[in-house]
Design a protein that fits this description.
Largest sheet: 6 strands, antiparallel
Structural class: alpha+beta
Number of strands: 9
Distance between the termini: 33 Å
Helix content: 40-55%
Shape: globular
Radius of gyration: 18 Å
């Protein structure tokens, strides 16, 4: 059975957890499941208990870039609790998983009425904003090899596993590069003993070596998440 825990939910008080439990619905999220799309307000927020969701922006020529990532340490769509704006990006499951879904109307009502819930969501949105800034710089300044290493390590941290179900097509969409570029980079990593790669599956073979070639965005994003889930007084 998949893990049924979410580290953000775990930081809530027992009273708030009880309140949320009456609103949540467990859902299975196969790879590719769409959680929200551009031009529409999300219908719900998802506290992931397993898997990885990514948020991607597309432009007119079809190019894409990753602007967010979430796993069992967070929630998707949190920023849309702050107001009525429609989404400008697409969020989908990059690695299949499970979540606890809260309807957007219920989540917004709780955001208004519960100071604790509002405070924790605002802290999470702050972390997401800082993460988006870091990823914007990463997409502009770092090479495909560095970014691929960073993303694989991040996904492994989210899932708690060094074996990941990933396709070259999905990775190329995340990195904003051609599929052939991902194949070349992944092949070089495999020859250097960093990864074991076969169709649709990536396994980290040497984590320390992979971390050594990842861009410093990996350590920055890890610190952001660790700060979010610090011990609360």
């Amino acid at each position: 059975m998949p893990p049924r825990t979410n580290r953000l939910l775990d930081t809530f008080s027992p009273e708030l957890q009880r309140t949320l439990s009456s609103m949540t619905r467990p859902v299975e999220l196969p790879r590719g499941s769409i959680l929200f799309t551009p031009g529409e307000a999300p219908s719900g927020v998802y506290f992931l208990t397993s898997g990885v969701a990514t948020t991607v922006v597309s432009v007119a020529d079809g190019s894409t870039a990753e602007v967010g990532v979430a796993g069992p340490d967070g929630v998707t769509g949190a920023v849309y609790l702050l107001g009525p704006q429609a989404a400008v990006a697409q969020c989908f499951m990059q690695i299949q998983g499970h979540a606890l879904r809260v309807a957007i109307a219920d989540a917004r009502k709780l955001f208004t009425e519960s100071e604790e819930f509002r405070t924790r969501i605002l802290e999470y949105v702050q972390m997401e904003t800082l993460l988006t800034s870091q990823l914007a710089a990463c997409n502009k300044l770092h090479q495909s090899t560095e970014r691929l290493a960073r993303w694989i390590l991040t996904a492994a941290d989210c899932t708690g596993s060094d074996t990941l179900s990933l396709t070259q097509e999905s990775l190329s969409q995340l990195l904003g590069t051609r599929r052939t570029t991902v194949a070349l980079v992944a092949g070089e990593m495999q020859r250097n003993g960093l990864l074991k790669y076969r169709r649709g599956m990536v396994q980290i073979a040497n984590r320390s070596a992979l971390a050594s070639i990842a861009c410093d965005c990996y350590s920055v994003t890890r610190r952001l998440l660790q700060g979010l889930h610090r011990e609360r007084a």
